[in-house]
Amino acid sequence: METITPDVKQLTGKECRELLYVRSTRPVRVVPAFTYQALQKNTVVEPPEKIDIFKKHVIAETFFKIFLRRGDIPVASSGKVLRKNSKEYPVKWYCTPQDLDYCYYLPIFVDGLSDNDVEIRKLAQYGAMDLIRRAPHKILPVLPKLVLPLKRALNTRNKKIMIAALKVLQLMVLIGPCVGQALIPYYRQLLSPCNLFKNINVNLGQGIDPDRDRRIGDVIEDTLNALEHCGGPNAFINIKYMVPTYESSIYPRCETGQPKATGGDATSHPR
Predict the structure, then answer these.
(1) Which of 4, 8, 161, 172 lies 20 to 30 Å from 97, alpha-carbon distance?
(2) Are residues 80 and 187 part of one domain?
(3) What is the CA radius of gyration of the chain?
(4) Which pTM value belongs to this model?
């Protein structure tokens, strides 16, 4: 018994090439990921957005700038040039700085560190450092109010702003009594941006870098060393948790040699 097969139209090579060309030129539809549309034909999953971790975050206006325009801040720039390792900052006070309410004024000065205007930022930095140096014993009670402005300045990802904030933090830790130990619970808020910029430095070998205070990687290294020196025995493990590439400047990684025994033969054993 013969079976009757339907007539199937055979496509020529030219027709196959035309169909493949039409299929290749068909517009592809971009669909979001993890949806049922991604299983459909002629679709492409939309790639994730790229995040620039080093992108600068611009802050519109700071409280220090607002209060300075209104005349609520009793300070102005003296116009002098700051010398290196000098304890006199180029600021002019209209009152005695020690008599100010540090719980009110010092957070405002630290908030001015994240300002985009260079002159206002320098005035806020020098004013905050002058207040800290004149009355170090007043820093510890106001320390919780300084964490948020410092965090805002470090999260701007602007190297100049970060350097200004880190220098203020160094001065607080070095001359403020018990400030280094009190800062340990706030390492998670402050040291995350430092982990990104820590390796941005210049390797000069045994040479001396005159611009060390202007390089973000070296300033971060000096800040972490100051936090470890003044933070007590629990400072290193907390710094290491936030900055895994940090090596201790107090406890060496390996021993250089064994201490020599004095008196008698060191290799002799009792019988």
Answers:
(1) 161
(2) yes
(3) 31
(4) 0.75
Q: How confident is the model at residue 262 (pLDDT cuts 50, 70, 90)?
A: very low
CB contact at 8 A, 150 and 165:
yes
First vs last Cα of the chain: how many Å apart? 110
Helix (H) or strand (E) holding 77: strand 75-77
Beta bridge partners of 77: 91
Tell how strand 43-45 and strand 29-31 pair up: parallel
Could you give the CA distance from residue 221 to residue 224 in angstroms, rounded to a whole number? 5
Same domain, 37 and 152: no
The answer to which of 21-25, 206-210, 229-233, 236-240 has the lowest mean pLDDT is 206-210
24 and 131 co-located in one domain: no
Do 150 and 169 meet the contact criterion of CB atoms below 8 Å apart?
yes
Q: Please count the structural domains in the chain.
A: 2
pLDDT digits 0-9 by tens, 220-250 = 999 999 999 999 889 999 999 999 999 888 8
- Give the amino acid at 9: K
